[in-house]
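for the writeup, i need someone to sanity check this before i put it in the appendix. the sequnce is what the collaborator sent (i think, or maybe the updated version? ugh). structure was predicted straight from it, no edits. if anything looks off just tell me and ill rerun, i have time this weekend
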Amino acid sequence: MTKHLFATIVTTTAIAANNRGEGDGSTLSTLQKITRGNDQYTTVSAEAIRWGLREYFQNHYEKEVNRTFNPETDRYSFKDEQFSAEKYIDDDLFGYMDAKKGKDNEDATTKRRGALEVSRAMSLDPYWGDITFGSKGGEKGKTSIHSTEVHCTAYQYTIALTPESLKKPERALLALDAIGAVRHVGGNHARFLYDFRPESIVIRITDDPSPWIMDVFKRIGESVGCPRLMRLVEVGDVKAEELIVGGEIADTPYGHQLEALGVQVHRGVKDAIAHAKAQLTQQLKLEVPA
């Protein structure tokens, strides 16, 4: 039976400005937003999250990464523009596409769909239009003042991966490590830090091809809860033994109730990820990467 790996992550709550770029051609750096019901929420693209994951692999496994980013020149470079999912972690996990025509104008596109699927992240809190202002140093002019939309919130997103679809299934273990260590996802954070690592995480290892655990975290007062996840377990749509929960959610009433339902609950995110890696290794008989 094919095994699938899903995880829903909720980040820390802090002031975020995940707007892309430095406001080239404009003095206003805007957040991406999406409407849900009668409120607007801020959102972070899947591409931005994938960028953060790529940064992790470049920092930890540079010899095994095809595409690298040079922050000094603000440019990417490739070791092999022919790509190789067997050789490179990033080509295997994230896929690639080189769209081109052959010498006889035939389709010579080289492409591979990314095995690691990442959802767009969405804020847990509605956005009410908070803006900060700044000014460039030195002599001031009409364009000296710039404004930046900011949002004090946490973000929630989900990943999906079928390890057996990878050229090297053991790279699923590296993907779990990367998810636990995403530092930032670009945006206006060249000016200040927003920590995009998990504050809480729910991991599901299952034969079921559907995640079911997307959007299970919810703002409850000043904290974060997961009533939807509890319901899924209580009604049997998600088996308790398929779930591994970790992080601050463990210390809430939701964590205690999930544990009572038979879910593996860890107070630490790293403990939860380590347990998921061990479980995945055993179930798929993986070789642990060096």
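The longest helix spans residues 269-284. The CA atoms of residues 121 and 157 lie 4 Å apart.
thx in advance!!
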